Amino acid sequence: MHTLQKIGLALFAAALLLFIATLGLEKYELSEARLTNAIDNTYHVDAIVAAAKEEGILGNTYASSFSFVPVVEDLFREAGANLKTTPPANFPEDGNRADYELPSWKAENYLLPVVKKASTGPVSDQPVLFWWLTVGLGILGGLLYILPKFNLIPGIKHDHLYHRSLTRGLRLSVRGFFLGATILGVLVYGIYYMGKDYFWPGITLLIGLLITGLVFWVQRSAWRTPAKSAAPDLTGWLGVGAGLYLIAFYVLLYWSPRHITSWMLLADPLSYTLNGGEASQWFLYGMLYTLVILVMGVRMFAKYMHNKYQQIRTASVMFFQTAFAFLIPEILVRLNYPYYDFKNIWPLNYTFFFDWNLDNLINSGGLGIFMLGWGIALILLGVPIITYFYGKRWYCSWVCGCGGLAETMGDPYRQLSDKSLRAWQYERWIIHAVLVFAVIMTMGVLYSYLPKNEVWFSRGNFLLLMIFTLAGAMGYAWYRWRKGGVDIGATGMYVGLGVTVLLIGISGYHWATESEQFFFLSSGETRQWYGFLIGSAFAGVVGTGFYPLMGNRVWCRFGCPLAAYLGLVQRFKSRFRITTNGGQCISCGNCSTYCEMGIDVRWYAQRGQDIVRSSCVGCGVCSAVCPRGVLRLENSSVDIDERATEVRALHISEERGVELY
Amino acid sequence: MHIAILGNGISGITAARFLRKLTDHQITVISAETDHFFSRTALMYVYMGHMRYEDIKPYEDWFWEKNRIDLKRGYVEQIDFEQKQLHFRKGDQLGYDKLILALGSTPNKFGWPGQDLQGVRGLYSYQDLEYMEAHSEGLERAVIVGGGLIGIEMAEMFHSRHIPVTFLVRESVYWNAVLPKEESEMVTRHIREHGIDLRLSTELKEIVDDGQGRACAVVTGAGERIDCGYVGLTAGVHPNIGWLKDTALETDKGILVDEYLQTNLPDVYAIGDCAQIRHPKPGRRPIEAVWYTGRMMGETVAHAIGGQPVEYDPGVWFNSAKFMDIEYQVYGDVSGRMPDHYASVYWEHADGRKSIRIVYDQNTQEVAGFNLMGVRYRHEVCERWLAQKASVEAVLQNLGLANFDPEYYQQFEREVVAQYNKQTGRHLKLRQKRGLSRALAFLRGRA
Lengths: 661, 447
Ligand SMILES: Cc1cc2nc3c(=O)[nH]c(=O)nc-3n(C[C@H](O)[C@H](O)[C@H](O)COP(=O)(O)OP(=O)(O)OC[C@H]3O[C@@H](n4cnc5c(N)ncnc54)[C@H](O)[C@@H]3O)c2cc1C
Ligand code: SF4
Ligand code: SF4
Description:
The complex is a heterodimer. Chain A contains 28 helices and five strands. By secondary structure, chain A is mainly alpha-helical. Among the domains of chain A are: 27-120; 575-658, Alpha-Beta Plaits, CATH 3.30.70.20. The longest helix of chain A is centred in the middle third of the chain and has 29 residues, at 421-449. Chain A is globular and about 85 Å long. In chain A, 46% of the residues are buried. Mean pLDDT of chain A is 92; it is low at 651-661. In chain B, α1 runs parallel beside α7. In chain B, strands 3-2-1-7-19 form a five-stranded parallel sheet. In chain B, β11, α6 (181-193) and β12 (197-199) form a beta-alpha-beta unit. The N and C termini of chain B lie far apart (48 Å). Chain B has eleven helices and 25 strands. Chains A and B meet through α13, α25 and β5 of A and α1, α7, β21, α8 and α11 of B. The site of flavin-adenine dinucleotide has 34 residues of chain B, from α1, β2, α5 and α7.
């Protein structure tokens, strides 16, 4: 290793340690001034201060957020109880009780600001210094580690990936443990999250078991043992550590941001500069996310000095993340416009059709209406048209933020995706189930949002529109399939047809009966569970936390409903395919190993078959790592069905009419 | 009917797969090497940590049972062709109705003193890889003898572990029997650029015993002694048929077979590296120990046994390899010693790691071959031109059709045409650029 690289690594490690340590550097002071600072409702502040005085703890300082938070929670509860029995002395007779009452959901919202404002210590005193010592130094260390790589001879840089503890992956048993523990943890926490309601976690578990049953017994995976997996003989414990770190980060970010206020503090100065306000956990996240993509993007440039496709694609995700996902929304907020990421498309952007977002857009004048129209145009026109011409890669590995992180920070882990047939079977059920869930959830939300009649876009017309869209899409897919245009199993097609018919039926039923709840579900609960399970647990905790455990595209491959939608277009009608170069394949397996989507590229390549797979995100890495120049990502409307069929004459005897498989 | 296939390499396995598609016979694939088929060509990647052994197996382990292909691990010591019985080293036997020999190759040893010492080994089998791995710990230098494709792979392998390599090559530049001069020189430069101690025009005289049966140095033809802890023997391979020499099976260098890959004995076929074609097609050699021919022979023999016999016809020669970071593809007739009536257009990139060569017959103007370094060309398009004996000028003007480099890569076909114009005083223009639609239209005969 280059000396510079050693220094870089040391700096990075030091910065990371200090970053973690900042969480312990702060103390938390419970004072009237700080509470006033955090809570804008004076009745609440007074009640909390009174409760604290009663307890004799006002003015106390706590050593960590973990000791501080329970104390505050107790005070909230006490204040809430007191306010319930005795209204504040200065409260006007004719006032609304809701103005002073402090129910637990309101108190919950106060927790984060209270902890953040109570924070006192070196980080809150010197946020800029600490930003540089942690984030800044981390960037410097990372770059020092990366830059010397530009001096190497251009070529594939995968030496020792399977020798290194960080990138080697997990034994099947360890991986199974993590997977099982995560699923269990999410479901159990989900019960608590849904207010001790078992319905949603129960349904989720049931669907999980159903899918397992389908994969194991209907699709006969139970007989296909042992399934190949991405499991080495020895677990890479450094990778496990990295995974745990990321998982912990996401758990804190989504469900316990009050314990990471120190990090928000050090992001404050930048936040003030950009949007004029202080940093929320989401600003912190956006900042780190963007910086990681930028630094690791530079690493991609170094790694693929010889590959223009990789360079341009990486530059593209770096640009879209920095400009579209980070800067533009912050600046919009500063200008009092709605926060809007112009490249985030429903159903990945699952809150797009939520009432608050729609209201927000509609009430923001011309620009808001434009955003609304733009978002819908992307869904209805952008996705199908651009995907038809270029494949889903235009989004997944050129534009998308999740893809951007996967392709940069996640690149060292791409080999860990599971290539077994079993994983592929799971993938198809799960990702399409998420798409269906997203559709039902969104239809429910829109259904309850839309007026019954009054305007032309009423519930009824919305349902009619959905019925026609679903029927049209399914009808087209069915027609392509029956014509033999796509090689898809009958099980999948029939289940798809069944689900579509069910959705159409339900929509028709609601249209006819004008009932209150779509799909007999409370739209509020549906979206709460969707946000928890898919939006947070799947996309974040598993999506990124599992990079070192199961590869960098776990979310994109198994969970992303937009990827499912793009994939359907790619599979049924697109000019994109990966061409196989005649008979040059030596079955070495580099392409399959480095396919982050777990596609067994070699399976096709060694038979001279072109690759048309709905999950392919067109990252181009299979083509880059192939030592024999066999693969090329291409677009053309010519011949795609024929060249991708399973039976394909390879070479020699073609003229004489003997078909070789 | 029971078909026994001896050898689970690419040729044997391809035969088994095609037999399963074409017939309902019982199929047994036998090998002493590994339980399952793996890609021999990818052994280096396991050593370098790009992949694990699991990853170089092209099929999941359940694949064989599902397709009713029985696998048997065991070393066959003797074949009773009369009784149609295989005799295993462990003492058991297996009968067959038809036998396909797909025995592969074994590394050459030329009687060097010390060639059987510990720490001296070729690279062919999975066991060779394990041996190399076991000897790599603490290794201070490796010497590689013989400058072919496996030699350079071995050099890259040790190099990836930061083990200094001395690479002894008998020729005056690397692989100049196969590569034309400029390409040979390019690879030679590239090997050195990586810091590998390449010794040209150097032969091995002996391998020195450290007194305990281990290699500790080599002595070159010029008498120089090079200390080392490992000696890789990569001076080519030969068919692995030593044990079949004194049987009824007719052999020469390999097992002699006809156009249907049948040996002199009824119901016995031979394919892959171990087969020697009695009457090879024009321009082809009797033994071609490459992956692709093994695969084609596997397909062909399955058709012969499956009752749809086709003559073995490997078509236009093609091959590919990778010299550390430089990819190499060849289509047609290109070599280091080309006949006098051949001329070539050669273009090389300023970075010295990419080149395009088109070989043609000066008398007839027919294109004869393509040699690519660091540039990818379409197999089907080149094959079509070669099969059609297209004129070099037609090829040059449409050269873009052949380009298979990834999107956004710079295209150099214009430079090749310019080079041709410079050489010949002609004024050709490039008419076609890279693009799948155009290439497909050409392949379908519409351009
Ligand atoms: C390191 C390396 C790299 C290579 N790279 C390339 C490349 O890039 N491109 C290319 O075209 N070619 C390459 N080759 C050559 C290519 O791998 C061979 O041509 C091909 O594998 C031969 O296949 P086969 O089926 O004929 O025999 P093999 O793959 O050798 O299979 C024969 C099998 O039969 C078994 N066997 C033999 N005798 C017995 C017996 N008596 N009892 C039981 N089992 C027996 C052997 O153990 C072996 O497993 C490479 C070879 C090596 C070693
Ligand atoms: S098939 Fe190739 S291009 Fe597609 S996702 Fe896999 S590695 Fe990327
Ligand atoms: S990397 Fe290339 S040669 Fe290797 S299996 Fe894939 S397509 Fe074939």
